[in-house]
């Protein structure tokens, strides 16, 4: 009973931050909610192991990221999802809401791994080692994927005004 109460308390406290992370990874609230639900079910099954970890938050974040990255391997996720085509890069520097819309569209065009690296490094403010732990890869992979992802964003957003990935 104690384990279940701890699980419920943890989930109630962390669900908003897990939803934000999932949304940043997925780009859609409905997909984010599905991802969080999947993660929380897995967390329930493995609660004793998770609660014994050095950092439950890091453990759960890694679960969420791994579920996001594994989603591409499932047949149901291979369905074509209709999206609006972006007409092309703007001729003027982007700021404010225009910047956010174009940045989200550009992030959606990155590979899942590159998007995950950027979300963890710049939105979740994890360092290279923490990002590598969450992704289950080496720090060198994090560095190279970050570099490739930023280069891809620069190609997709040639008129981007630097200001960081500060989308709420």
UniProtKB/TrEMBL annotation:
Q: Matching Gene3D superfamilies, A to Z? A: 1.10.1740.10, Winged helix-like DNA-binding domain superfamily/Winged helix DNA-binding domain
What organism does this protein naturally occur in?
Micromonospora coerulea
According to the entry, every stretch annotated as the RNA polymerase sigma factor 70 region 4 type domain falls at: 102-150
Q: Which superkingdom, per the lineage?
A: Bacteria
Listed name of the protein: SigE family RNA polymerase sigma factor
The RNA polymerase sigma-70 region domain covers: 12-75
Q: Which CDD domains match?
A: Sigma70_r4
Alphabetically sorted, this entry's keywords are:
DNA-binding, Sigma factor, Transcription, Transcription regulation
User: Which protein family is it in?
Assistant: Belongs to the sigma-70 factor family. ECF subfamily.
